[in-house]
Structure formats: C-alpha cells, structure tokens
Amino acid sequence: MILYAFALFPFAAWFAFCSRYPVRAVLTVVVVLTFGEEILSLAYNNGAPLHLVRDFLTAKDVLAWILVFALAVRGLRDRQRPFDAVGYTFFYVLILVGFFALGESPAPRLTQVESIRSAYVPILGFTTAALLTAEERMRAAKGIVPIITAGAVLSLAQLALPASVLNSTIGVGNYWVLVKQVPGYVDPTTGLPGNFFTSTGFPRLTGTFGDPLSAGEIIGATLVLAMAYRSYLRFPRIQMAILSVALLLTFTRDGWFLALFGWVAISVTRDKFIATVRRFYAAIILGALVVAVVRPVRGYFTSIFNGTSSSTTLHSEAFTRSFSLHFGFLGSGWGTGGSFAEQSYHLAVTSESVFVDLLAQIGWIGTAAILLALGLAIAREARRSPMQTVVIAIVLAEIVSAFVSENLFAFNSGYLPLFILPLIAAAPRTPKTASAARPSEARDTAHLSFAELAP
What we know:
Helices cover 70% and strands 0% of the residues. It is an all-alpha fold. The chain has one domain (15-270, 317-450). Helix 2 crosses helix 10, helix 7 (121-130) packs parallel to helix 18 and helix 7 runs parallel beside helix 20 (411-425). The longest helix has 29 residues, at 354-382. It is globular, with a radius of gyration of 22 Å. The termini are far apart.
C-alpha cells in the first residue's frame, strides 16, 4: 500500500501544480511537446534503459489529461461554466471507449488502445485551452510563442549540421526503430525516417520537434498565434521571422496551409479589404522570389509540378483510393484503420486520412458522433468571438489536412493546432486599443472573450 502511495505521488503533485498554476502547467506541456522527443532520443542514445524511455513516450498524454481534470475541477469549485466543454469531451471519449468495450476488433489489443489514444488528441488539445480563463489564455499565448521560437532556433541550428549528427549524437534512427518501434519508417540507406528528407534529398527541418510533420504543424499553429497576439509579444517581428523561416524549411504543406489560412483571416478581420489584397499580392511576389532564389525550395516545388515528388504522388493516390473504400455503420473495430495500426496489424485500412481511419474503425455512426461533439465544442467558442473568421479558417485548414494526412491524430502534430483555437477565439480584434484583463477581473469573468470584457 505504501508503495502505491509513493507511485501516485508524482500524479498528485502534478494535479496540485495544475490547480494552482494552470498557465505554468500549460507551458510545461508545451515544453515537453517541443523538446521531449529529442530529450528521450538523447537519453536512450546515452544509455538510458529502453523500458524507461518507452514508458515516457506517453508522459505528455498523462500530463495533459491530469491538466484537463484539474481545470475542470477548478471550474466546478469556483462555480464557473466548464460544463459545456467538459460535456462535449465526455461525450467524445464515451464514444471512443464505448466502441472499444462493445465492439469486437480483430486487431491486437495494444493496437486498439494506441488507436484510441490517437483519436482523443484533438478534443484533448481543444478542451485544455477552452477551460482557461480569458486572462490565462492571453498569458498562455505570450508564453507559447517564445517557447516554440526557441525550439525553432535550435532546430535551424541542427539543420545546418550534417544529417549524420542526428544518428551519431542524438540517436534518432535507433530511437525510431527500438523505442518507437516503427522500423518500417526508417530508410536503410540514411538510417533516418524517410520523411526527414524531401524527394530531392534535402533534409527537412526536424530538430527538437521529433519529426518534420510535427515541426510544421506546431510552428504553423504558433505563427498564427503570434499574429493574433502580436501586440502582446516582445520582439514580435523577430519571432515571426524565425518561425516563418523554420516553417518553410519543414517542407510540411499542412503547416504552410495552416499559417496561410490563419494569416489571411487575421488580415481580413483586423484590416481593410484593400490592405489585405495588397499584402496577399506582396506575399505572392515574396513567395515567388523565395522559390526562384532558394534552391531546395525550387527543387521541392519543381518535383511537385513535374510529378517526381514521391510524397505528393503517394498522397494523391491514397486520396483517390479512399473514394473506392466501403465502410459499415459501426466499422470494424479499433486498430483496423490507420498507418500506425498497420505497423502491427497488416490488414488495417490506411489511406493517409483521418476520416478514413475513423470510418474504418468506428463506421459512419461513430465518426459522425465524435465529429459532432468536436464541432459543437468549437462552435461554442467561436460563436461570440471577435476572431470568429480566424477560428473558422483554422478549422477549414485542419479539415483539408485531415483528408490527406493523419497529423491530427498524432499528439506531437495534432495537440497544438486544436489547442490554439480557444486562444485565438479570446484574442482581441483590435490589438492596438484593446487591453488585457486585469487578473482580478479575469477571476470574475472566467470564460468571457476580450470583446466581452470591454466596457
């Protein structure tokens, strides 16, 4: 019994920390998200036990769930209004667990659990931020941007080093093969995952973020957040410039589209239409110059348009193939869909699509139910937001991404894009004249946006 008490102590301590310092707890999760993968890889490469490193893979999930629980308890204790956010989350998770408990899946039990773990990432990220107060959301945004910028700086520094350093010093190859147990992703020639390079052989920015897809999604989401809270940041131009360069070098189109949709929506929301059009044309000209001058970028776009980009070809084929698939009303059970499930269950249906993953596993009924829960939760946040257009733009970008990728179902790449939605919803429409809520005011107006806090 005493041994169990000691084992539970770290969880109790984290719960207490989350209850007392919610913003610091959020930033701790973001730090783990930004640097955790590389720290674990370094630890294993320097002799840390395999079982211990593998156990820490799910640490970020545990931290995030305890944080959500602590925020929900705080809301009930302070008689705030977390019921809607918690209710949608409960319904979402209930669907996931219900199909696991009542369904009969042919996939291995561990594969089923991993599939459920992936599916709850979007609602987990969104609910965490939705349970923060208006003042806490502003403070969280101000802290997230410099953390991700620091990760981008370190990642740019690593990109300048020979690719072999990733294996020799950080041990990325062994980490993916032995710790993450996905040897099929590793190229036997380079010893690194194949998507760490473009089709032309140029290394993609990965660095501290673990993989280029996660780097692109995280940096793209943070860039939109920096735009929304620009007047509250220190040296915003420098930070946004670093994030923009890093995002470009991830060669992750999902991250590009997320940043582009967010930038256009913020410009339309805050500025006149003519000014937005001018900026858009200026961005096109700048983009054309980058493509013309920067050789790796030029080679990347050339490979896309001349049909030699293997990534584009595979995504296109998978997208086309998805329309020929047939799904039942209740699906085939967890673990029967998705490229991650395919690693341990070779009959898993995969089409590089979140929607295909869901339809294959829980069918039309389950997919419709959890999408409804997530959609209603987002609609609740966006309804009275002065930045409603931006929230809708980000959601559209994620929907487009979900059709051709599974990024939304991976914690590293899916948590932050959904987390920023409530933060964006609470951002001021006119940052030059809006002022942040005082802490005392924020406690009394827990879940109001900046627009509602204005006199």
